[in-house]
Write a structure and sequence with these properties.
Two copies of one chain form a homodimer. Chain A is of the alpha+beta class. Helix content of chain A is about 35%, strand content about 25%. In chain A, the strands form two sheets. In chain A, strands 1, 2, 3, 4, 5, 6 and 12 form a seven-stranded mixed β-sheet that branches. The first copy, chain A, has a four-stranded antiparallel β-sheet with strand order 9-10-7-11. In chain A, helix 1 runs parallel beside helix 2, helix 1 crosses helix 3 and helix 6 runs antiparallel to helix 7.
């Protein structure tokens, strides 16, 4: 039977001011997923990583996505066997569950001869996110599938706009501390001041314009979050220090990846991005927090077949 | 002495979801301003229109801008004589005071051999807005000077980003009712829900992307204001009716111009824009409210020398 192997990228959701709407795909870290098409209605999930994730399809993020796809193809005698080597750590805030979900949808579609549109793949993948986090959102799935920076104007009805993939480098650090998505949600203010919201959407407008006009200075000026970061960054030790030092080294800006604890920074050159990653590592090493750093260009393609 | 004649365009601030940040220049209506350079430190303002605006320089919007420019050029024996034929009605919400302010700065600069940048002209013109409304804002001045659709990411420090000038037509109606800017300000909520703000900046992002990618469908889907319009439209009789009928005729969308009472709608063709203007007029005629309608393309240039 046919088989296929994928590299499925990590992603950064809540791109600074673009809380709940802007996301970005990375080249590092990525998950590896291998798919086999079966000739019976069966889903087999195997994990080759160390994360002890459940492999029963109905409890596995990739599994529920494949179940939804099989439901759609109700008269066909087919199934999927998937082997996952997860390198995007669950709970890192780098889109680990979205990678499993989007990878499952993408891989199945490839084996089936690309019968679904990317929008349909987002639809299927959102069931995986629902299993992982309780909410059917596309913030990470969209950049994972489309690559570059994506705007999720609305999840229901689905309205996804791929923006572009700026020629920039990303440094990301995952300090090994636990930030529960539910805590990160709860800490957010439900009510905000109009004047702060105006400032935020001024930055959102500037960021989108900067991305589409390739204006790095404008991107840099717009990478400011006056609403979410001041609240959520409290949950991440040394956040302010990481940000301050990164900017001193010449990073354009950055912030919390997803709901944390990972932090990302954008830079114009690989040299700056590597220096930023070094200082990130140094800051956490000094206080004895285990950490992982990644440097890569913004991923312009999304999932890759290898 | 040198003299010069200008057409200074009306503008739409608070472009639907882009409250306080996005503005647009119109080809109709426009003010006419005629400038003479004098060889003594003197400012003479004449109004040829019917609006009985004060002509003492310190009480006139154009006058205070010219005063600021003269202050800057402290050692030169020069002055300005300006004749204004205002066609943008004060209080219409179509940027009447901004036209006087921006026109004054632009005209003086032309006579002086273009010694100031556009950003400096915005700076001078904001003193005119301050006289007119008490706040030094650039929402209308920026599109008046730059043309097209502009983003004022911030007024202080000044951060203006000209976006582009979509190939679209504007229908605008000014129903002759009074909406005081102070009332329009006061009625606004000071506190809003985060979820509404997220929806708003999703629309802002979509609108900016639509403008820069020339995607009229995306522009149309993004022309939605969940925060300001629902509150302010109460002050404008028949607002909902005008909007509904315009959309039925095929307009892409629109909303309140500035803080009202004018309403504008964007359309892809002149034919649709003219039909929209007709229905606008009909709706207000039926209830006996005097009204003025304008149809023009988005102004891609800003102020014109004639």
């Amino acid at each position: 039977m046919k088989n296929i192997k994928l590299q499925v990228p990590g992603t950064v959701a809540n791109l600074v001011c673009g809380f709940d709407i802007l996301g970005m795909a990375l080249n590092e870290p990525f998950d590896e997923m291998e798919f086999k098409l079966l000739d019976e209605r069966k889903i087999i999930i195997r994990h080759e990583d160390e994360f002890h994730l459940p492999t029963e399809p109905e409890k596995n993020v990739a599994g529920v996505v494949l179940q939804k796809i099989l439901e759609k193809l109700e008269n066909q005698n087919i199934g999927f066997e998937v082997t996952i080597n997860k390198k995007i750590k669950p709970g890192s805030g780098l889109g680990s569950s979205a990678a499993s979900a989007a990878g499952a949808a993408f891989g199945a579609n490839e084996l089936l001869g690309n019968i679904f549109s990317k929008e349909e793949l987002v639809y299927f993948a959102m069931f995986g996110e629902e299993l992982a986090s309780g909410s059917r959102h596309a913030d990470n799935i969209a950049p994972c599938l489309f690559g570059g920076i994506t705007l999720v104007k609305s999840s229901e009805p689905m309205d996804i706009i791929p923006l572009s993939s700026p020629d920039l480098y990303v440094s990301a650090v995952h300090p090994q501390v636990e930030v529960k998505t539910s805590d990160a949600r709860q800490i957010l203010k439900k009510n905000i001041q109009m004047k702060d919201a105006v400032k935020q959407w001024g930055n959102v407008a500037g960021l989108v314009a900067g991305i589409l006009k390739n204006d790095n200075k404008l991107i840099s000026r717009s990478l400011e979050d006056v609403l979410v970061e001041p609240v959520r960054s409290i949950l991440i030790p040394k956040f302010d220090e990481v940000k301050k030092q990164s900017l001193v080294l010449g990073a354009l800006g950055g912030g919390i990846s997803g709901s944390g604890p990972s932090i990302f920074m954008l830079s114009e050159t690989k040299e700056i991005a590597e220096k930023v990653a070094e200082i990130m590592q140094k800051i956490y090493n000094e206080i004895g927090i285990e950490n992982y750093v990644y440097v890569s260009k913004i991923n312009d393609q999304g999932i890759r077949i290898v």
